Amino acid sequence: MDKSLKIVLLLLILIQGGPLAAQKSGYIDTEYILNKHPDYKVIQDVLLKLSTEWKKEAQSLDQEIKEMTTQLKAEEVLLTEEMYRQRLEEIKAKQKASQEFNNRIFGINGVYYQKQAELLQPLQSKIYEAIERVSRRNNLGLLFDKAAGPSAIIYTDPRHDYSEFVLDELGIEDNN
């Protein structure tokens, strides 16, 4: 009786595991897909323009601080102690303002990264929806992203690359 119970359990496991073994898998390269998408180039241009403007503003603040410091050193012997401290406080306030500007614009939750997320979100949603449609149409149980950070994908067979299918789904032609 014990042996027949083991056989029944083994058969149940094989029946349940059968669909898992039949799952198809593939991969995509989201970096490749993004670089092929014309909207991504527009977004990159907008972000580059914004960051260039903000970097110029930050450099202008830094230049003002440098000039104030140079002027203070040049006039140091002519200033009273109180005037010297007042100018030093002005420089420190300007340095603090510059640091706050850089943090507000380029910090972890800065305006630049918020703008980047705001501009990229609709495109990422569109790509994700196309990936989902391609996965369903091709009966894929698993789809990996080759471009995702440190990944466990060591080798990829081009036959399992679904990136072009996603581009087709998005209506983008390969213009190599």
From TrEMBL:
<dbReference type="InterPro" id="IPR024930">
    <property type="entry name" value="Skp_dom_sf"/>
</dbReference>
<dbReference type="InterPro" id="IPR005632">
    <property type="entry name" value="Chaperone_Skp"/>
</dbReference>
<dbReference type="Pfam" id="PF03938">
    <property type="entry name" value="OmpH"/>
</dbReference>
<keyword id="KW-0732">Signal</keyword>
<comment type="similarity">
    <text>Belongs to the Skp family.</text>
</comment>
<dbReference type="GO" id="GO:0005829">
    <property type="term" value="C:cytosol"/>
</dbReference>
<keyword id="KW-0175">Coiled coil</keyword>
<feature type="coiled-coil region">
    <location>
        <begin position="51"/>
        <end position="78"/>
    </location>
</feature>
<dbReference type="GO" id="GO:0050821">
    <property type="term" value="P:protein stabilization"/>
</dbReference>
<protein>
    <submittedName>
        <fullName>Periplasmic chaperone for outer membrane proteins Skp</fullName>
    </submittedName>
</protein>
<dbReference type="GO" id="GO:0051082">
    <property type="term" value="F:unfolded protein binding"/>
</dbReference>
